[in-house]
Records
---
Amino acid sequence: CEMSAVRRKAQQIAMLDPTLFGTKDEFNEKYGEEVKGGRVIKWKPKAQQAIMDRIKSRIVDCVAMRKEWAALLPPIKEALIPVSLTENQQAVYDSILHETLEKIKANKKLKEKLDEQDKIDETEDITDEDSGDDLARLLKPYLARLEQYISAPARDPLGNIELKGEDRISPKMSVIVERIRGHLDNNIPGKILIFTNYRASAAEIYELLPKDLKAQALLYLSEEKVETGSEFEKNPAKKIMVGVETSINTGLNLQYVSRLIRLETIWNPGTLEQGTARLNRPEMKKVERRDVIYFDWIICNLTIDVTKVSRLTSKIVAVGKFEHIGNPD
């Protein structure tokens, strides 16, 4: 409730300036109508406004937005790294794609939504970063198999039957290992985070890491969020973490990470910003050690990866043009 927020704010301010509200007992006596066990059970009429007026009489409340502290951030280097499926992998992918399209066509509600989105795209409001999210949610169950197949071919039922030897390993795996080794061998300050969209993809990457890299890695699971997040931050021997983006990008601050590898892509700029912001923020409590923040995208040719990245890029460009309209630079 609003009163709880005001009380928390008063407590925070009191830590900075104890003279503002006096002792806890003095605060409770002045603003509380009913106090029990050192806690206000019922507040006096207009206590909320009185507390805020008292705070404003002494404190200027400023919020530092991203633009204000952007100068504190290390520079960013982004790389889009293309890979291709092998001939056998592509044949299986095409088979799964054909099956997926047939299922989508058979879903009348989804087909209507696709036709509706086509019309929206023609006159789409460029400021709407999340346009198409509803459609993306409807498509997710159909597209999940395609995306997971690209990252973990042998975990797909058809891929497990049809693929042999090296064809059972995603072409993205060699890029991941290459980027990790380059980061570690060059003693680049900061740790490495690998984002996936699915637990199966994260598990596959973790299991296929070479033994020496796996010893330095953590597989992030939502049910072990606190423990894994803490170990990744505090254990210097753990330099790599792989997990599902939607779980990691909530509640974790990752200012000590300097390389983010995206195994799978997302649909819209809002989701991109939420994930990127986990590490693209300054160190406020420690000296910033990162010289550069690296963002690596691994994109598989002739797959849904290209479709998703193309849509995301077009929306980022469109929104950017709108936000900087009238700016000659």
---
Amino acid sequence: REFFGKPSMETRPQEGHGQKGEFNDSQEMEKRQQEMDRRRKEMETKQIEMMKRSLKEMEKQLARTRSFFDKHAAKGVPIPSECTNALDTISKMIETMKAATTMEDLQNAGMEEMQDHFQTINDCRMKVEQLARIPQMLKQVDREIARMERNWNRTKKNAPPETAGIVSEGDALFQNIKDTRKKLGDLSQHDDMEDFQTALEDGVFGRFDELRSVIQRLEASRNAKKFLSQAPRMLKELERIIVRKKKDGEDISKLTELLGQMKLQIGTITGLKPGSEEFQDAVEELAGLGQAFHEAAGATDENRANFFGQQGSEASQHQPLLKLPDSFQGFGGMRGN
């Protein structure tokens, strides 16, 4: 029994020692957590203060933008409703943010959507600037239409009777251009630039191209008799070139081939209706053969005969921001912190 007696003090467990250590660890963790919370709160407060200071700059930007819209509206420029709606929305959001005390308050004020509203306003500014340029664009269109009208009237004046169909086609095209110009005036009173640009490009400048083609055909038809009467003389000139080349001992096989093709092409042109698209295409093909002939003959620019290449050439010569402050950037990335 003595041998198995009470344990000595050195080997007896220290009652309460483990519990005390655990208590101290818990206190330490709690202190660390409190310190982290304090720092987080401090950082959040600084962030909120910095954002609130930025709100003043945002208000200045909004005031300048509102003044921009008001100035253009006073000049009769239509202001899209989404522009003023976005301005009003951001203004209300700023007032709510001024009263925020936590990041959650800012988040609830719609801060995440603010960038989208800013982008809407910036897009609106660009659209309004385009709309503001429409009056000047219409003046240019009117000048181009007046120039084209003079050209068309000059071309169709004293047109031969056989070209009546071409003249009617040109008149219809020009009337279509004038109708589109009236439509542009109506579209300029709305805020849809896409419709305006489509009408301008297709209904005016696109029609200009078509009218130029008609002018070219009309001139070709008017000059058809002269063109055909000159063809034999031009062919004889080319034949003399071949004879001269042959005397000089040069190879004339290519020139002879091209001359034969031109003779056939002239025969084809003679059977076509003057002023028709087929007639004009055939004349252009003949001009290409003439160009190839003179290149093969080694003609220079000075002495190269323009083999019917000027048909209608005269007519063909008439071808004219809101920004989020840095303190607001990356707001979405700090929500999970």
